[in-house]
Amino acid sequence: MRFVIIDRAFRRWARCTTVAIAVGALFATASPVVAAGPESGEPTSTKKAAKKRPRKPRMPALKFTMKDIDGKDQDLGRYYGDVVLMVNTASKCGLTPQYEGLQSLHHKYKDRGFVILAFPANDFGAQEPGANSEIKEFCKTKFDVSFPIFAKVSVKGDDICDLYKYLTAADRGHRHGGEIRWNFNKFLIDRRGRVIDRFEPPVKPDDPKLIKAVERALKRKAPKDAATKPPKEKPAAGGDAESHGS
Q1: For residues 53, 54, 59 and 63, what is the CA-based torsion angle, rounded to 10 degrees?
Q2: For the domain that residue 163 is a member of, what is the CATH number?
Q3: Is 93 a catalytic residue?
């Protein structure tokens, strides 16, 4: 009886040993998995190809050519490196007195690289009915405006100009889109030509929120390539144009 038990134990041990040897031989003869390195020219299995992020367009809000109040083409790219406040204006609106505040704001910060661009529009209550020459004369005699004024445009509807189509679009890479609601809406553009803030018509030029946003933008350094801007002919202003953006 004792020999039978020993015999069975021996047989079990032999079977286990045979399986172990076979498994070891299998691993020993298998080809090793080697991650391809840079020498092989093949990508490694552990590294995924990095996705290239699309480049953001340079000065997106300034890639437009607009006619100034005298009808001359002006490349808005000349303001690259400045902080810009774009305002749709009107001469016969309850908010027209904001011209005075805008002129004060322009005068206060113009030497630090700040400029206001006015875009007269007749889209709301037909409150800008005059010709460009009449608008220019009104701004000069009534408010002594010296910041650039552009020719009358449309800022909404089917005939909206390309600039305001960009500013108001919801899918143009900035968070301040949406239809213009009334005269004297304000878009703030940073030194890199990007829309960074928006202020609705009732917000006055001396509102602390607007002032704070302007001063914060002015603290940012201008891009290095802004210094290489080619000189452009100065756009017309309400009165004598002050040197800016060149």
Answers
A1: -170
A2: 3.40.30.10
A3: yes
